[in-house]
Each structure stands twice: as C-alpha cells, then as structure tokens.
Amino acid sequence: MSIDSEFLEDDKKNKSMPGGKSAALGSGVPDKEFDALVMEAWDMIPQKIKDKVKNVALLVEDEPSEESRKNEQLRPNETLLALYHGIPATERGVGYGVGMTLPDTITVFRKPIIDAAAQESGIDFEWGGPTEPMKRRIRDIIRDTIWHEIAHYFGMDEDAVNEREEEGTNEFKTS
Fold it and tell me: What are the tens digits of pLDDT across the range 16-30?
C-alpha cells in the first residue's frame, strides 16, 4: 500500500530534530509497543480470512528499503505503509510448497504508519508518548493496511484493491 507523503515531507522540513528525522518518525512508540499493535491489528482480521492465508510471515521494518522503493516505482514524495511480497494464492500451482518454500511476506513499515497517524491526528512536534486514542489510530491504520496487503495475497493488483476501497467494497468492518 503506497501513499503520497508530500504532507510528510513538508512536515519533516518544518519540524525536524537533529539528524533530519521528523518528530513522529523516531519518537513516542517503542518498537515492542508497535509490534504489539501489529499483532492486535492481525487479531482483528476475521478468522475465516486468516484461515485462508497460508505460508505468509508478518514482518515489521522501520521503512521501505531503497530497493523496495525502486521496485514499487515510488516518487520521492511517496512511501509505503506495507508491502506484500510473494506468490499470490491465485497463482500457486499444484507443486507449490513441495520441498522447502520460503514464506511470502507482508512487511508493515513502522515510521510511515506513525507519521500518517500523527498527521491525521494533528499531533505536533512535542507530542511525547502515544495516547490511547493515538495507539488505536495506529492499530487501525495497521489493520487496514494488512487488510489491503491480504487482498494482494488473494491476487488483486493495486488498481483492483484501490477500486474496491473507493467503492467501499473492500473496507474492513469490525462489527
């Protein structure tokens, strides 16, 4: 899932810390706490969907690598919230999984998600530790992002996922 992060770039220019990092990028959410939010978000995915997801590892990294940015043809003002990498279930043949098969991956990117949540919440430079509403917003962004990446696992390309999201037919509903 990619987003135009022009607002993040502007924010970084205006609110930077030593080393050029934005305030939201490095502050407020310890790695273990973010990882716990990822697991909470995964747990919110309906069990009937999770049961169909086979041989996929859920990973967390700080931000997309330059290689991922290049492969996804991201412009300087774009970033990724997560990335599915692997063989979609719709393309796995009969021989899939015979022998050693490395898992597909859904990689969630910590810094862009925290930045997006901070931007949406209007959090400023000195926001400090995450409040409960901020944690819920981060978790919801993670949940929606994982949901988006699971659609890729099931064979939907970016255009199809975006079209369904715009139509409201690919929305995650908790009730």
Answer: 222 333 434 445 688
